[in-house]
């Protein structure tokens, strides 16, 4: 299989990124037809992603970042594993539901967990843990039924993925995604964004950030929404009518859970429960020194619909409206909900 097409940013764009995203020391490159932005070392993995062998029993949670990924992972894993709340509390979600392309995002030169390196070297004595695909192998070796997370667009996944396994795609309104992603990129050392929100909006509106562009990612999934093996969910629907969406998931996954069992899943995956469980939150070491000092270590934040109203000034709203028009072709088909709410039951 041929390698994915690569689009290189201009030198000016790379310097802008490096000046504000201190974690992107090597810059970013655009991969595939939608120019999905990833660190340059991703080029050693793209063919492996296309060639990955998914199984019929697999379920893939596919999202654009900060669209309810962690929430959906925990829901789906719990539903597919007999409501094993004990296991869910003891074992990290990243182990139970591996992050498919994390090798392409992680700073491979540092901070790889020693236990993962040891396991990799035990299987590959002469292998290089920095480039060997530790996290991809973790996904490959996960016990069935595998629940795998990805932020890759469909064009970077195996072409036959929907003929092979089921995919749950979750979309969220882009204003709230932008706010949530700003906090994410500001607090995590892998990105270490040092600008303010207005700076982040500027990068967002130019599709210059990790795993951009939003519209390209969404468009690829929306085009496949009628496929029998794809369930297209909206984050806002999951928030506003959680039980209804759990029943849709139950029917799609074929888990056959009772109303009471679904209520137990809803309670287990409430935002208060998930914020309190170390198994679904990364260790303190992944956060920047600044974030740790300021107490900003909430991987799972508010989970609210409409938090964007607290961040968008009239000037930023004007800029964002112009960006929204660039995705008008797909946006007019999608019933995004932007309203604020008071309830905070689950989410990211």
From TrEMBL:
Gene3D superfamilies (UniProt xref): P-loop containing nucleotide triphosphate hydrolases (3.40.50.300)
Domain of life: Eukaryota
Residue ranges constituting the Sulfotransferase domain according to the UniProt record: 57-325
Keywords for the protein's UniProt record, in alphabetical order: Transferase
Segments of this protein annotated with the region Disordered: 268-292
Molecular function GO labels: sulfotransferase activity
Compositional bias ranges of the Polar residues kind: 268-280
InterPro entries, alphabetized: P-loop_NTPase, Sulfotransferase_dom
Family: Belongs to the sulfotransferase 1 family.
Name used for this protein in its record: Sulfotransferase domain-containing protein
Organism: Scylla paramamosain
Taxonomic placement: Eukaryota, Metazoa, Ecdysozoa, Arthropoda, Crustacea
